[in-house]
Specification:
Helices cover 41% and strands 25% of the residues. By secondary structure, it is of the alpha/beta class.
Length: 293
């Protein structure tokens, strides 16, 4: 009886959050260890299905870097990175699209459907979902020299998201699962950072939440302590001081852009924790770091 009462209390704790997010959209970037560990994969699928059944509209954007590297390794193609971005020539782009769209995406869709959900896999080409342009980055040189233009190949950035297909799927109670591949005006496919795609999709849908699953506990301060909640202006200070560095930089910038575009709250959470999405959505304390305007 006592155990049953504790379970009931947990359900009651979640009630105000179910009410708050009923019929709202939540965009989740799925990546890291949560995509590799079998138990975490199953738990993620169940979390998403539960959200859908109680009236929340989840939209998933997934990564797949390790899976891409495995195929490149079998093909004896050595991956190359510049400032954390994968250099993507035509041959590598073929592999990226094959792995992300043809393999990883379908595995996630299959997992959700296997456990009782209704998921549909998409890439940027489907319904003209993600329009992109070639990304260019500039590297500083000597003080008296102009910055060097670095060619990353078929690496892109989002220029537009067409939400119509996502809204249509939502009406039919399907869960969209999006591979981060966009299409340019030249009709070429472009490899896009999954965090950037998730942020752009959340912004265009005016999502209630953007949740990024990572392999870290969240944003840390200079003493390596978790920051549970932070505003966008404070993020700027942490970036300037170097407290936020490395792979966390594009994640917090993605959150900032999403907030400016109209997303209510953004979160960076540890996907290695069982049922991380539910803990963030439906408990008072949440997990990870919340970033707001």
């Amino acid at each position: 009886m006592k155990e049953g009462i504790e379970k009931a209390k947990i359900l009651i704790e979640s009630l105000p959050y179910i009410r708050e997010f009923y019929n709202k959209t939540v965009v989740i970037k799925y990546g890291g260890h949560a995509m590799v560990d079998e138990e975490l994969k199953k738990n993620f699928a169940l979390d998403i299905i539960l959200m859908k059944y109680i009236g929340i509209n989840p939209v998933i954007v997934h990564g797949g870097g390790p899976q891409i590297n495995k195929v490149l390794d079998r093909m004896q193609i050595t991956p190359s990175y510049i400032e954390g971005m994968r250099v993507t020539d035509t041959e590598t782009m073929d592999v990226v699209e094959m792995v992300l769209v043809g393999k990883v995406n379908k595995e996630i869709v299959g997992l959700i459907n296997q456990h009782g959900g209704k998921a549909v896999g998409l890439s940027g080409r489907d319904g003209d979902l993600i329009r992109a342009k070639k990304m260019t980055i500039h590297k500083s040189q000597a003080a008296d020299a102009p910055p060097e233009l670095i060619d990353l190949g078929r690496v892109g950035e989002v220029t537009h998201v067409n939400p119509e297909i996502l809204q249509t799927l939502d009406v039919q109670d399907f869960i969209p699962v999006i591979a981060p591949v966009g299409v340019g005006e030249d009709n070429f496919s472009y490899n896009i950072n999954a965090d950037m795609v998730a942020g752009a999709v959340a912004g265009h849908l005016k999502a209630a939440k953007l949740i990024l699953l990572t392999d870290v506990v969240g944003v840390l301060d200079k003493e390596s302590k978790l920051i549970p909640s932070i505003c966008s202006q404070e993020v700027d200070h942490l970036l300037a001081s170097g407290a936020i560095a490395g792979g966390m930089i594009p994640k917090v910038k993605c959150c900032q852009s999403a907030l400016v575009a109209g997303v209510t709250k953004t979160h960076i959470i540890d996907g290695r924790v069982e049922h991380a999405v539910l803990l963030e959505m439906f408990t008072h304390q949440g997990i990870g770091t919340e970033i707001v305007l």
